[in-house]
Specification:
282 residues, twelve-stranded antiparallel beta sheet
């Protein structure tokens, strides 16, 4: 099993010019005025766009940009409930093996800005002695790792452009269109009037895109859903949908309940995070 990790795109700046004919007697003076205005207006427009970008970034809860270094939690998962919504492949083990050998495993996960580490406390030898060499446990660890690896871009604000990135904001009926260039790609983001990100993707026929929803939190917007296309294909039936609810741990909003839906394989991975501790710079 593999989960597609979506690209984190935002959009590119595009400008236009306008010229006006003037009598020949005023060409020289008019050219000076027009040049001055063009430079001044471009500077003002750029400043406005960067200001809007900064305002947007400030609206999101980004604990890893403040004082959070890492957090560690136990995660709670029920194999019995899992197979009520997920197609069983057959190499996970029997019901009895799952209940007696795999369900009792006490897993913990550590999340930093750069990585997610899942630990079962089992040695490699002990893992290999489980049914099908621990296939069920390995699948669970993979699902938890990928779903929490998807969360940091929102908690570090890398889901939005870097503050130094040249961007262009355009008002729309629903809020804003934000554009900028990422390497050779023209990226476009759609934001609500309150700057909540709705969706983003490469401009053009490419299917590489993602959709999001955010909820207000104590420190700013919190990611509640992220939808990406598996292997870059975002059509219905081929999506990965990540959902998050939150808990307050020492004043920091951390995921509490996570659901991952993998449409192509009819899989639903649902777990809770508990007994969390945080490590901060303070």
């Amino acid at each position: 099993m593999s989960f597609y990790k979506g690209s984190w795109f935002v959009i590119i700046y595009a400008g236009h010019t306008h010229s006006q004919l003037t009598p020949w007697r005023r060409i020289y003076r008019g050219s000076i005025v027009l040049c001055f205005c063009a430079v001044f207006c471009h500077a003002q427009g750029t400043k406005t766009d960067q200001t809007l970008l900064n305002q947007a970034r400030e609206k999101y809860d980004a604990p890893f940009n403040r004082n959070l270094q890492s957090f560690e939690c136990a995660f709670d998962f029920s194999w019995k409930e899992h197979f009520k919504e997920t197609t069983r492949v057959g190499d996970e083990g029997t019901d009895e093996e799952l209940e007696k050998l795999i369900q009792p495993i006490r897993n913990r996960v550590t999340v930093t800005r750069q990585k997610v580490i899942v630990s079962s406390g089992l040695t490699d030898d002990a893992m290999d002695k489980l049914p099908y060499r621990g296939m069920a446990e390995r699948l669970l660890e993979h699902a938890v790792e990928k779903s929490l690896y998807t969360w940091p871009p929102a908690s570090t604000n890398t889901i939005l452009p870097d503050p130094t990135t040249p961007v262009s904001f355009e008002q729309s009926r629903s809020g804003y269109k934000l554009a900028f260039k990422k390497q050779t790609f023209d990226i476009e983001m759609i934001l609500d009037r309150d700057m909540r990100l709705q969706r983003a993707g490469v401009k053009g026929p490419q299917s590489d895109a993602f959709e999001t929803s955010f909820a207000p939190g104590q420190q700013g917007f919190l990611l509640t859903t992220l939808t990406v296309g598996e292997d870059g294909n975002a059509r219905a039936g081929n999506r990965l949908i990540y959902s998050y609810t939150y808990q307050n741990v020492e004043g920091i909003q951390l995921p509490e309940h996570v659901v991952v839906i993998r449409e192509s394989h009819h899989e639903v991975w649902e777990y809770g995070l508990s007994d969390c501790t945080v490590k901060t710079n303070e």
